[in-house]
Design brief:
This protein is α/β, with parallel strands linked by helices and 143 residues long. It folds into 2 domains: 38 residues, no CATH class; 104 residues, Purple Acid Phosphatase, chain A, domain 2, CATH 3.60.21.10. The chain has 3 helices and 7 strands. The longest helix is centred in the first third of the chain and has 20 residues.
Length: 143
Amino acid sequence: MLDILAMWRMDGGKSTLDGFSKLSAESREAALDYLDEFLPYETLEAAGNRFILAHGGIPFEKRHLPLSGQSVFELVSERPDYTKRYFNDAYLITGHTPTFNIGDDYRGRIYRGFGHIAIDCGAGFGLPLGCIRLDDFEEFYVD
């Protein structure tokens, strides 16, 4: 757990914690109440397609487990195997892994393949911010 905390602090957690500590007790409680309502994943349908959204992903070997039984840590930090199809009836949409790590052809672009849609285009590294409209899969980018 200490390793996870150290990694979180290096990935921006320190500034988050510093800002959080400056809030009033009432504002901190309201922020925690707000965050407590979030699920580590979301499922939705658009234009007749089913989508599973997770920040990190799902380990391939655990893809058959119910989403509610998946580890929150894995849903947030997993790096999916983008060469394997996880679901026949749904797209898995993830962030967390910049698409340039999937392949140079996807540097600054959304990756779509094998039932995956990876949307972390590397904005944190100075690359475009990518967004995809699920109704028709149109991609949008902000430099």
